[in-house]
Target: Putative NAD(P)H nitroreductase
Amino acid sequence: MFDKNEDETYYHYFAYTMHVNLPKESEMDAIQALMTRRSYPRGSLIQPAPNRAEVEQILQAAMTVPDHGNIKPWRFVVIQGQGMKDLEGVLRAMYDGQVEDEVYFNRFIQEIINTPMMICVYSVLNMEHKVSVLDQQLAGGAACEHILLAAHAMGFGGIWHSQETTEALRVMLKMGNEDHILGVMSLGTPKRTSLAKRKSFVDYTFEWDQESGLQPWQ
Ligand SMILES: Cc1cc2nc3c(=O)[nH]c(=O)nc-3n(C[C@H](O)[C@H](O)[C@H](O)COP(=O)(O)O)c2cc1C
Model:
């Protein structure tokens, strides 16, 4: 049995619960945002980036992801303006001696520094916690997706890029040895909005019961 005073997971679930009636109409807006989100290549994102109030809303939306144990095993680093320009030096130093194609690399640098805003999300893992490291990483991944979804719902576009957690970035972002970059979310205004073709869930879904076992969804 749960001991409410000892089990922080239980405490997290119920302690702050307050009954509210949410308007039904809002469901449509949420589903529409989910169904129309797509990634926009970094080079197709222009100013404006979300302003301060908007980015705060986006990040607060990211704080609502399911989070086993209420650990909040992530940190957000917002980079824009001068910060974006400063990335050029960081990247040139980071890849010094490893660049095979200068032209491609310079194009990559330009694309990065012209991105209106980036939000780097990294995991801050509690290795001693009873909640598994996988669960903690998944929660951080969900936070990444909430950033993209919230930005999209507010009329912005974005894309999730992976980024190796190099020693230089670890030092720059004051990350611990166990921490990893989960993603770099580039955000801005899409030059042109569009819809992506989506596969049907049907080919990826089964039903299960003991007698029939796994059956393709139909
Ligand atoms: C964890 C993760 C890391 C990703 N890293 C990259 C990346 O480094 N480069 C890239 O082009 N796309 C990356 N993507 C994929 C894009 O963000 C995007 O989801 C994909 O191109 C499909 O576009 P869509 O979001 O419109 O379906 C990553 C996605 C995830 C979930």
Q: What stands out?
A: The radius of gyration is 20 Å. Confidence is low (pLDDT under 50) at residues 1-7. The chain is about 40% helix and 20% strand.
